[in-house]
Amino acid sequence: MKNTVRNIVGVASAIVAGILSFMPVITGERDIAIPAHHFDHAGLMMFGAIAGLSLYRTRGGDFESPRWIWPAILGPLVAMLLMSPSFYAIVDQSPFLHSLNHLLFAVVAGLTAYAGQRYVRGVGWAAALMLELMAVAAAFGYGVAPPIAAAATATQAAPNGTQSPADSVHGKQIFAQDCASCHGAAGAGGMGPSLKNEHIRKDQEAAAAWIKKPAPPMPTLYPSVLNDKDVRDVASFIESLK
Ligand code: HEC
Questions:
Q1: CA atoms within 13 A on the CB side of 166
Q2: Which atom of ligand 1 is nearest to the CA of 235?
Q3: CA-based, 20 to 30 A from 178: which of 84, 131, 171, 241?
Q4: Average pLDDT of the residues in 194-218
Q5: Counting Cβ atoms within 10 Å, is residue 211 exposed (0-12), middle (13-18) or buried (19+)?
């Protein structure tokens, strides 16, 4: 009887996690606030973990084994990597890829919780809680860092104070290096908002001013990574996004 209840809870949670995962396909990608997006991940993981925890008991009896420590530890690590902004450019390509990424979150959470229980009963709960806290922390901006790798390319000297016209081809390169990880390869948004039709919200001057002095969580890349010309060029490029 007890196991019947657990089965029902487990299967129901797995179904909810599955439906939540495919929200990007069901609703079409739309811009939602970044914290909301990460809370969505937290929800996915919670239902995945509940499914994993429920599954454990349906077998009955204790059958702990030291080997299960591996998936219990590696699960949260994989989840952390999946949540890193470097992945957004890939995930951003289609709602379907985005959904698969979500599904992976749920599966990883389920596996982590289940494996923890198989290792020593109770560890599954602790591991699931850890994952959950990580996802909630992400909603508050944890893990967002400026793209350091791009720093080297941006330090070419600016032409001596002369205001050469903005070069949006160069701006496009800058965008791919320093902005696409958050705003999407085509500027359609990711962890950062969509920049399509940015010219309606900000003219080129306002966009450049924003890039020089953005509000968190967008990183300030000027003047450490981008020089004046870089800022002008990338501002000119995003103004052209439709
Ligand atoms: C770490 C992620 C991240 C990176 C990298 C990043 N941005 Fe952003 N960007 C954001 C976020 C998040 C916001 C929204 C901030 C807000 O509204 O408070 C934003 C907002 C903006 C806006 C304002 C959009 C509006 O509402 O008008 C512009 C313009 C912009 N970014 C351009 C860029 C450009 C150009 C680059 C590259 C040089 C860049 N961003 C790099 C995360 C990022």
A1: 19
A2: 35
A3: 131
A4: 92
A5: buried
